[in-house]
């Protein structure tokens, strides 16, 4: 078995830390590139760590000299930094760039959300530079805290027809395992210029509500927001630069039934062989759902008010 040599930029985030751990455990030779001052104490001593300022293009080219794949896992605030990777990679022998995405292919309105637009621009810049690219789409993380589901208090906000529409979800462990499955040993030529979708479970809103009811042995309190209402919130949020807007947009495309198609993005679904996928009963009722990263207080405030309408 031949391993691909992988460099990773972005190692400390909620999703990236799990993905990095899975790639390290795969046995592939890994090097972690980190910005000056970043904490690498969570990386095993056996893994090479290299401090690098992406603005120092000569340095970036040098540290990528023995790398086959560059995987970026930066969070929202670091997305635009990837342009510096796209500038450096053509000067190396790197065969594949995997920009940070972990979301979906969005429509015109979705691309007006700043982080979505920034991700799209990085991918376009890499392709324009002639770099072979692989994009990994997950739809939504099952742990995502702003989809209108309050497991603790047995409440749920439906949007549009989300009660009857499936939503493509992946847990963090599944995504981490998928990254290792895809990039550790798969021949690079079979990955170049592909969009790979991950799909662990696709419950409808009604199925999630039923699992909530079973968990609490009581009817789940619900409310339904119209698509017109959520769309107005999206437009207002876009104009005001509100952090809540991405959560509202994700709820809208679930309610319209578009989310699944956007999660697949016209690509092919990658299944992790031998992985026992989660189901909605296990996540909601079985305690398998991990905690998502802390949401900004403003987001929690907005959703707190909306849940008050559940009856």
Question: How would you explain this protein's 3D organization?
Answer:
36% of the residues lie in helices and 15% in strands. Helix 3 (82-88) links the parallel strand 4 (69-72) and strand 5 (96-98). It is globular and about 60 Å long. The chain has helices at residues 16-25, 57-63, 82-88, 114-128, 172-183, 205-216, 227-240, 245-256, 259-264, 280-284, 297-307; strands at 6-9, 30-34, 48-51, 69-72, 96-98, 134-137, 140-141, 149-150, 155-159, 169-170, 194-197, 221-225, 268-269. It has two domains: 6-139 and 170-197, 3-Layer(aba) Sandwich (Rossmann fold); 141-168 and 201-262 and 274-307, UDP-galactose 4-epimerase, domain 1, CATH 3.90.25. The strands form four sheets. It has a five-stranded parallel sheet, covered by helices on one side. Strands 6-11-13 form a three-stranded parallel sheet, with no helix packed on it. Strands 8-9-12 form a three-stranded mixed sheet. This is NmrA-like family protein. InterPro entries: NAD(P)-bd_dom_sf, NmrA-like, NmrA/Isoflavone_reductase-like.
